[in-house]
Amino acid sequence: MYEGVVQDLIDELGQLPGVGPKSAQRIAFHLLAADPVDVRRLITALTEVKEKVRFCRTCGNVAEEDQCRICRDTRRDLSVICVVEESKDVVAIEKTREFRGRYHVLGGAISPIEGIGPDDLRVKELMTRLADGSITELILATDPNLEGEATATYLARLVKPMGLRVTRLASGLPVGGDLEYADEVTLGRAFEGRRLLDV
Amino acid sequence: MTSRLVLAAWWGCWVDPIDHNGAVGLYRDEGVVLRTQKLGEADRIITLLTRANGRVRAVGKGVRRTRSKFGSRLEPFTHVDLQIYEGRSLDVVQQAETIASYGDRIVDDYTRYTSGTAMLETAERMTAEEKEPATQHFLLLVGGLRTLADGAHTPSLVLDAFLLRSLAVAGYAASFEDCARCTRPGPHPFFNVAAGGAVCPSCRPPGSVSPARETVQLLAALLTGDWPTADQTESRHRREGSGLVAAYLQWHLERGLRSMPLVERS
């Protein structure tokens, strides 16, 4: 145990995800030894992120204004919405440069065992967005795990009466891997989603 | 260190095998994945109900990465053959091979998924102590998930059958024919959760309910596995039966299941 503020700093850093007591101690002593200008820059960044960043009123993505950068961009395809679980997923898809539509961030996935149901996610907001009739395709890009699949199944069933084109991201073999190491479900999905080689 | 010194004095040598890189606690078992929780950057804590070791919590290292060697093998509803080594605080999954994957067929139907999740949570709650063998619970769960995935019966009936049988395995079998208090042969018109099932008019405690005769017959059929009778019941009796089963379960678990309010009853 250290005295006063040093221990307070270690305790606070230890609250961060993935930071254990040893790492917290190491970061705290790094900050103690660091240039005061660098530390002040970190303080400013932390303060600003809490003051400025909010959630986009349209899609739920993190934004510095009322709407996020993607929802404000008029060059994007307004007829397609890609549904993701977290804002981190928006960044991952944006990196691919394959998708030019807009997003909808649910804020998690349906997990009854954790007590998380559809009412705890931004499902109502999604239905409101779909109700205006301008959307023609809904891409379900929830995580390819059980909760993500269940969320996609639930949304597909909910949206079906609207007559939209509902698609799900493909599952299959990761690029660069060996076939023999693929599990049965992944390999089965890869077979289901096999494509014609047009050579 | 004191305990190691004392042990060394007793046995005349150091006896801690881990410190001396001796025998590593490695075991092989089969189990059903009940729940997963994120751990650190790419790991997960996997809760399993195993055949020989009861409920086990083990770390699946790197399982969240898309290139993980485990793939979907450590997802809930998967029946896997495992090799695990005993860690200091948590065990670690070393190898996993799929025996049967029920998740794909269960998750295709949202009603099935919510019922299945309640079954997994029940199995976890019924096995309170880690590594205490619970073979009957394991076999019951595997059978229940197989039935649910096959889709031959309504998911809520499969769930109620599983809950009643799970309670019976735990020693809380409900009585649907004889009086739960005086064992007088039935059928009896009253049902009391605290008394343990059907009760006769003379034993009836305050707060007893009087369900329809068909509802009690349905519950008895679910407990004994009489599917032809159960499948023919009307939805109002199924609804009433599900309410009684949920109340009976909550009474014995003391705390309700988190997944139960989210179960879709078709």
In short:
The complex is a heterodimer of chains A (199) and B (266). Chain A is of the alpha/beta class and 199 residues long.
Polypeptide structure, described:
The complex is a heterodimer of chains A (199) and B (266). Chain A has helices spanning 4-13, 21-33, 36-52, 69-72, 87-96, 123-131, 146-159, 184-192; strands spanning 54-55, 62-63, 80-84, 102-105, 137-140, 165-168. Chain A has eight helices and six strands. Helices cover 43% and strands 11% of the residues of chain A. In chain A, helix 1 (4-13) packs across helix 2. The longest helix of chain A is centred in the first third of the chain and has 17 residues, at 36-52. In chain A, the strands form two sheets. Chain A has a four-stranded parallel sheet with strand order 4-3-5-6. In chain A, strands 1-2 form a two-stranded antiparallel ribbon. By secondary structure, chain A is α/β, with parallel strands linked by helices. Chain A has three domains: 4-52, RecR Domain 1 (Helicase, Ruva Protein, domain 3, Orthogonal Bundle), CATH 1.10.8; 75-168, 3-Layer(aba) Sandwich (Dna Topoisomerase Vi A Subunit, Chain: A, domain 2); 171-199, no CATH class. By secondary structure, chain B is α+β, with helices and mostly antiparallel strands. Chain B has two domains: 6-101, Nucleic acid-binding proteins (OB fold (Dihydrolipoamide Acetyltransferase, E2P), Beta Barrel); 105-262, Recombination protein O, C-terminal domain (de novo design (two linked rop proteins), Up-down Bundle). In chain B, 37% of the residues lie in helices and 20% in strands. Chain B is built from eight helices and seven strands. Chain B has helices spanning 2-11, 103-107, 110-126, 135-150, 155-169, 213-224, 227-231, 235-253, and strands at residues 26-39, 43-50, 54-60, 78-85, 91-101, 190-192, 197-199. In chain B, the strands form two sheets. A five-stranded mixed β-barrel of chain B has the order 1-2-3-5-4. In chain B, a hairpin with a 5-residue loop joins strand 4 (78-85) and strand 5 (91-101). In chain B, helix 3 (110-126) runs antiparallel to helix 4 and helix 4 runs antiparallel to helix 5. The termini of chain B are far apart.
